[in-house]
């Protein structure tokens, strides 16, 4: 019998992980990347005798596929992808492919913001008592973990792009942290398309599965009203009393599932800010569903260290606090960052604008921001939008210079906040690269 041909577009973490799992499962595997494949990934492919190419796509070697796994970074509108679809070849994401080869309990977390923190926090709580992996948009590839580790449970952080290419993927527990306009350039600039994409996380769920979501998020609530799902719903809220799910009363989180109630104090949460109370609610609800002890949940919430590049305190120099929030790649993420500032702030912002509407930031900028440093290739929109709101607004294309300007402007008691509000691809490899350059520049002051 002829082997099924699996073609993988994109030779990054998810692509190479899928290649290894595919080979192990008896596929004829070919990896093709339009860009350069990193040396460390090339070595893995060569060592495992998997055929690959980079800096080109050889059409004849791709359109003879039985199945294509494409990297989430490649849009559907690319000519090659259109051609694959026209040929009737199934295109899937890594999570769809890998989920077929594991019987593990899957916890899948999506949302415009908070998904990395919620996934990391959920994993941190569960690993105290369960055999659990952390994958998806974060850490080591899910496919590779299915191959190498075989965990009994996985916490998966999942982007809308990964959800766009699922077929049967069905998490036992799904979480939607929130939905705000993001990546609209990939969704024909229609918010509705992006919302539908996020809700695909629940499309294969049944009554015996769970959907945990923010009941204070009107976008989610309205979409559920008009497009009911099969899943058992467990909402969480900061403002309403929730019968089945989680809510905040005073400074306590109350979680009820099937009349089984637990209470978590929020006084000693290591993560600050209202949005992090929500992340804690979502993570604790998952843990409660999976029968983690109350004491374990409480201790884990109190000793969780947070996520790199997400409101990460870097250093205090001359009584000025430098904060790395490079992971804030959209307006809503920066909203949370500015909301949590309790001192005059010098704000470093900019990058690739994904059709941002900055108006929801105006009140915070007026109230808390004393200077703005625009760090991007094209800063015109930022300069026009915020120019009249602050006394000082400057632009640069170098992180080291941005940090030096901030150092000159900073006075005792100020914050310097890198919260870019935009994607990083104009000047940096990715948001991690941007965050690391910021931290290095601060340490070199």
UniProtKB/TrEMBL annotation:
Keywords: ATP-binding, Cell cycle, Cell division, Cell shape, Cell wall biogenesis/degradation, Cytoplasm, Ligase, Nucleotide-binding, Peptidoglycan synthesis. The keyword Cytoplasm applies. ATP binds at residues 111-117. This is UDP-N-acetylmuramoylalanine--D-glutamate ligase. Pathway: Cell wall biogenesis; peptidoglycan biosynthesis. Residues 309-421 form the Mur ligase C-terminal domain. NCBIfam families: murD (TIGR01087). It comes from the Bacteria. It comes from Postechiella marina. Cell wall formation. Catalyzes the addition of glutamate to the nucleotide precursor UDP-N-acetylmuramoyl-L-alanine (UMA). Gene3D superfamilies: Mur ligase, C-terminal domain, Mur-like, catalytic domain, NAD(P)-binding Rossmann-like Domain. Belongs to the MurCDEF family. The keyword Cytoplasm applies. Residues 109-287 form the Mur ligase central domain. Its EC number is 6.3.2.9.
């Amino acid at each position: 019998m002829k082997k099924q041909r699996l073609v993988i577009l994109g030779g990054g973490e998810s692509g190479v992980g899928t290649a290894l799992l595919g080979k192990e499962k008896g596929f004829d595997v070919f990896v093709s990347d339009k860009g350069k494949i990193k040396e460390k990934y090339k070595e893995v492919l060569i060592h495992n005798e998997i055929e690959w190419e980079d800096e080109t796509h050889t059409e004849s070697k791709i359109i003879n596929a039985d199945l294509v796994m494409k990297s989430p970074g490649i849009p559907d509108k690319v000519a090659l992808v259109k051609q694959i679809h026209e040929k009737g070849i199934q295109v899937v994401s890594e999570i769809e492919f890998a989920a077929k080869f594991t019987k593990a309990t899957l916890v899948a977390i999506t949302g415009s913001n908070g998904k990395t923190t919620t996934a990391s926090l959920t994993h941190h709580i569960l690993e105290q008592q369960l055999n659990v992996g952390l994958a998806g948009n974060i850490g080591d590839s899910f496919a590779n973990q299915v191959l190498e580790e075989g965990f009994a449970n996985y916490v998966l952080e999942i982007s809308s792009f990964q959800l766009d290419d699922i077929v049967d993927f069905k998490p036992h527990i799904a979480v939607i942290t929130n939905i705000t306009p993001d990546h609209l350039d990939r969704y024909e600039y229609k918010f509705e398309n992006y919302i539908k994409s996020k809700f695909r996380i629940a499309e294969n769920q049944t009554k015996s599965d769970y959907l945990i979501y923010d009941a204070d998020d009107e976008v989610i609530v309205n979409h559920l009203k008009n497009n009911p799902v099969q899943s058992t719903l467990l909402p969480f809220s900061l403002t309403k009393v929730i019968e089945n799910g989680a809510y905040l009363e005073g400074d306590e989180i109350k979680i009820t599932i099937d009349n089984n109630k637990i209470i978590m104090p929020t006084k000693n949460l290591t993560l600050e800010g209202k949005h992090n109370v929500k992340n804690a609610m979502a993570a604790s609800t998952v843990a409660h569903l999976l029968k983690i002890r109350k004491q374990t949940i409480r201790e884990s919430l109190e000793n969780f260290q947070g996520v790199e590049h997400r409101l990460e305190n870097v250093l205090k120099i001359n009584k000025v606090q430098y904060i790395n929030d490079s992971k804030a790649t959209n307006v809503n993420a920066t909203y949370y960052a500015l909301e949590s500032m309790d001192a005059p702030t010098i704000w470093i912002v900019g990058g690739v604008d994904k059709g941002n509407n900055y108006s929801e930031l105006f009140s915070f900028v007026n109230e808390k921001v004393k200077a703005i440093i625009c760090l991007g290739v094209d800063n015109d929109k930022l300069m026009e939008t915020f120019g009249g709101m602050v006394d000082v607004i400057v632009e640069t294309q170098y992180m080291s210079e941005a940090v030096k300007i901030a150092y000159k402007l900073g006075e005792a008691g100020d914050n310097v906040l890198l919260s870019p509000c935009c994607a990083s691809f104009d000047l940096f490899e990715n948001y991690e690269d941007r965050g690391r350059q910021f931290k290095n520049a601060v340490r070199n002051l």
